[in-house]
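Project channel, design review

CF: Before we commit to the Mionectes macconnelli constructs, I'd like one complete example in the thread so the newer folks can see what an input/output pair looks like. Taking Kinesin-like protein.
RD: sounds good, go ahead.
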Amino acid sequence: QGVVLMDPSEDPDDILRANRSREKTFAFDMVFDHTATQEEVYVSTTKSLIEGVISGYNATIFAYGPTGTGKTYTMLGTDSEPGIYIRALDDLFKGLGATAGEVDYTVSMSYLEIYNEVIRDLLNPSSGFLDLREDSKGSTQIAGITEVSTTNAQEIMQLLTKGNRQRTQEPTAANGASSRSHAVLQVTVTVTQRSRRKETGQEVRIGKLFMVDLAGSERAAQTQNRGKRMKEGAHINRSLLALGNCINALSEKGGSRAQFVNFRDSKLTRLLKDSLGGNSRTVMIAHISPASSSFEESRMTLIYAYRAKNIKTQV
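CF: and here is what came back for Kinesin-like protein:
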């Protein structure tokens, strides 16, 4: 459960810095090495959240880390090794199928990307930029997004793969097919209890499952970005910073001072407002690269993920 990060630039003969090692140890709930399979990662991170979604809790899964460390692979996967999206939906449908006698359910999903602080629908890219609005109940909705209702996992895999091709990907010096946007798969499960007698009101539970494939969190020096890429990187880092600020505020909430959680700093945090605090369970899967050239990035990623571990939510 521990990660030890060694500094590649340390010189064993340097007497002055002998006691000032930058070696850091982080403890997490679960750590996977390079031999872990998609199945293992899924079972130990996400599988337990699915039952909660059926019973009306929200759940959020983040894939976080620098570019090229495998976030999109973890979330989307390949045809032979499907990622968390597909496995989670598979389990969701199985779980709902088991309760089919007692309840009616609908599952709707939408797949969108947040790029340069604007929202694009990946299932219908021609619809242009979409707005975030709040409905009368105070929950955040995306106006005009395509919602697909299907209970066939195969169909969904095709939709997601097609949607993923629409994602904004640009080559940077660090990764040839770097995702430059945050992709959010939003699955809403509405479960209606069938009443045997007409007088008793129906019980409706709504659970939302968010699976977020974040854009790469690397420094501009690493990607050698200039011009448009540089601006784009600034937007990415800005939304990740906003997410970090929300995580910080949420994890310090039990502290002495009452913390204000600023969800409105970026579109990403505004969309995930219900799924970070409150009635929700959150998992962050941090990805790091074993390369010594990305030591700084790995260190920042681990610190960021370590903070996320301290979030306390009041359900």
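RD: helpful, thanks. The chain has ten helices and 14 strands.
CF: The longest strand covers residues 103-115.
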